[in-house]
Specification:
By secondary structure, this protein is an alpha/beta fold. The chain is built from 9 helices and 12 strands.
Length: about 325
């Protein structure tokens, strides 16, 4: 038998996991690569890491946090919407999507972040956001463009102009909604090509959002400063079981989280002899989660959505426990 060389012996030394150790110092290699970047390029240097250095951030300022969205951590496993990521809240009409987005918008405002709302449905309720949610509509930057291309360009201008005023400003972008925004050929009579154009242009927007996230990392600390929440509609998946989000595979691939909401029923009460709807019961289900690293997590939760916000259904015994509801009688 040929005796192994000293170099070969070094290669076959085992780590604690049983994986052979390399003949080079990987930690020193990563440090060397980082050291080859200038002081102005530290956000690039931070991309060179050891595998065991890759963890989700733990500090509160790395997330858009809201105590009023208690279901988020229970389902997703992280305390809020992380900066540096794109998340998607999808569902059929009147399932609580925009309510969830508004709660996060208020939370972002409270933390000092700029909220840019792309209100392509032109349905944002200023009075509700201010009087029921506690947000400040006067501090929102809003694009009301219904065009996928032009709306994305306007959001880009907002981001660029805001960063020129304050390079370290954190920005929370909300697109409400993906499915209601029109593509550049929407008035074309060839309806057969509409879905394809939608998917292509939405994919372009998602890549643009990713570009924002990369471009506006803090150049010295590599801290993420852009978070994105896309509100989307679902439709029947013809030819197979279940539903799909609008916008093709691009938005699905580039979203770190897809949370799907589905309305189960209206919640009604009788007040002074008249039936009044005070909210809905909706089910939140995780369709994609690239943020959770534990062994298991909740797959779905039932929620009560009202004009004031969202509460866990098992915590609400009656409508009188909902904030803002008064004088109901059976």
């Amino acid at each position: 038998m040929v005796k192994k060389s000293q170099e070969t012996e070094e290669i076959v030394k085992k780590t604690e996991s049983g994986i052979p150790k390399l003949s080079i110092d990987v930690a020193a290699l990563v440090k060397d690569v980082r050291g080859r970047y200038s002081a102005k390029e530290q956000h690039f240097a931070s991309d060179a890491v050891l595998g065991d250095e890759i963890t989700l951030p733990t500090s509160d300022d790395a997330y858009v946090l809201s105590e009023e969205v208690a279901f988020w951590k229970m389902l997703i496993g992280v305390p809020g919407i992380p900066y540096g990521r794109i998340v998607q809240i999808a569902g059929k009409p009147d399932s609580g999507k925009s309510t969830a987005a508004m709660l996060f918008m208020k939370a972002a405002q409270k933390s000092g972040a700029l909220v840019i709302l792309w209100d392509s449905e032109k349905k944002f309720d200023t009075v509700r956001f201010k009087n029921r949610m506690g947000g400040d509509p006067s501090q929102l930057a809003v694009s009301r463009s219904k065009s996928i291309i032009e709306g994305a360009k306007q959001v880009e201008i907002f981001v660029k102009a805001a960063k020129e005023q304050n390079p370290n400003l954190k920005i929370f972008i909300v697109w409400d909604s993906v499915g209601a925004t029109l593509n550049s050929t929407q008035d074309d009579n060839d309806y057969s090509k509409q879905p394809g154009v939608d998917a292509k242009e939405i994919n372009w927007v998602m890549k643009k959002f990713n570009k924002f996230i990369e471009r506006y990392r803090n150049p010295e600390t590599a801290e993420e400063t852009i978070a994105v929440c896309c509100i989307n509609q679902v439709y029947a998946n013809i030819g197979s079981v279940g539903h799909k989000e609008k916008g093709g595979s691009g938005i699905e691939y580039l979203s770190s989280v897809i949370l799907q909401l589905s309305r189960k029923k209206d919640l009604n009460k009788t007040r002074k002899g008249q039936k009044i709807k005070y909210g809905i019961l909706t089910r939140a289900k995780v369709r994609k989660n690239h943020l959770f690293s534990g062994e298991d997590c909740l797959a779905e939760l039932d929620l009560v959505v009202s004009s004031d916000g969202i509460e866990l259904a098992d915590k609400v015994k009656s409508n009188t426990e909902l904030v803002g509801w008064d004088d109901a009688d059976e």
